[in-house]
Amino acid sequence: MPAANSSSVLLKSKPHFQILDGLRGIAAVSVVIFHFMEFIVPKYPDSFIAHAYLSVDFFFCLSGFVIAYAYDTKLESIGKLQFFKARLIRLHPMVLVGAVIGLLAFVFDPYSSLYKVYGAGKILLMFLSSCLLIPYPTVHERYFNLFHLNPPTWSLAWEYLANIFYAFVLIRLPKKFIWALMVIGAAGLYYETAKAGFLGVGWGGDNVAGGGFRVLYSFLAGILVYRYNFIIKSKLGFLGVGALLFVIFLIPFSEKTNPFIDPTIAIFYFPFLIAMGAGAQVGQKLQGICKFLGDISYPLYMIHYPFLWILMSYMDSKKPDTHQLIIIMCIGVVLLIAFAYLVMRLIDVPVRRYLSARNKQVVTKEVSIVGEE
Question: Could you write out the DSSP letters of every residue in 37-53?
Fold first, then answer.
C-alpha cells in the first residue's frame, strides 16, 4: 500500500502524536465534565458542554488512525496473536481496574443501598460483565447501562470488536470496500440520531445498535485518514487545534438541529481534525502538557464514572443546590484527574510493563524454537 508506506515515513519524522495525545486528553476531561453536568442539569439544553458525548466518536476516529499507523505495515510480520496480545496489554488492565472501582463504589456507596436490591448473584454477574466486556444491562433504576458498574466500558467493548475486525478483514480490505462500509455507517449515524434526537447512543440496553454505527464509521474514517496520507500541515499548534475540538462540545443542544449537526460532525469534522492534529506542530513548552493529557486520558475515562454514581446517591439523599454541585464538580474533576494519574503510575504502567516483558520473553522463546527446527 504506497499511501500507507508514504504516510508512515511522514508520521515518523514529525511529533504528530504529541498533539493527538493532547486532543485525546481534552476529550477525556470533557467527558468527565459532561457526565457531572448530566446529573447537575439533566436537561441537555441547560448544559454548557452538552455535546461532549461526541468525544466517543472522536476517540473511535483517532483509534482507527493510530491502529492503522501502528500496524498496517507490520501486522503480517508479527501475526494476529501478537496483535491481540498487544491490544489486551494496552487496554485491559484499566478495564479490570474500572470494574473493581465500580464494584466497590456500588457496594460501599454511603448514600445508597441499591446493591441490596440485586443481591450477590447479580452483582457478581455485573462484575464479570465489566471484566469480560460482555454486556449485561440490568439496572433499570439507573438508565439501563450495558455495564452498570462502569458505564463507559461500553465503548471499549466496541473498540475490541473493531480491533478484531481490523486484524481479520480491514488490514487487507481494498479502500473502495472501506468506503462502502463507511457509507453504511454514515447512513446509520443519521438514522440513529434522527431516532434518538442526538448521537449519544450505544451505551444502553435500549440503544446498543447506535454504538455499532458510531464505531463502524469513525474507526474506518480514521484508517482512511492514515492510508490516504490525509495530513494537513498548519501552524495552529496544540492550543489552536485543541480549541477546534473543544468548541464542538460547547455547541448549544437543540432537538431541531441535532439530527443534522451530530452526525455531520462525526462524519466530516472529526476526520478533518485528526488530519490537522497529525500535521500541526507542538511547541516545546506545551509538549509536557500534551504528554500529561495523553497519559491520563484513558485512565481518567475508565475510572471516573463509579464516583458519579455516588454523587447521584448523594444528590438523592442530601438535595444539594446547583451552586453546591458546581463546586463539587470543579473539585471532583481535579481530584479525578489526580486519581487517574496515580492509577496510571502505580497500577496501569507497571502492570503493562510486566505483561509486555513477559510477552516479549514468550515471543523470543517461540522464535528460538522455530529457528532450531
Answer: HHHHS-SGGG-TTTTGG
Q: pLDDT tens, 331-355?
A: 999 999 999 999 999 999 999 999 9
And the C-alpha cell for 225? 485518514
pLDDT at residue 19 greater than cutoff 70: yes
How many structural domains comprise the chain?
1
- Per-residue CA distances from 243 to 23, 167, 238, 293 (Å): 9, 34, 8, 15
Of the candidates 80, 71, 92, which has an alpha carbon nearest to the alpha carbon of residue 223?
A: 71
Q: Cell 469513525 appears where?
A: 218
Could you tell me the pTM of the whole model? 0.92
Taking phi over 0 as left and psi of -120 to 50 as alpha, with beta for the rest, 109 belongs to: beta
DSSP letter string over 190-226? Answer: HHHHHHHSSS--SSBTTSHHHHHHHHHHHHHHHHHHH
Residue 57: give the domain boundaries.
2-372
* C-alpha cell recorded at residue 184: 453504511
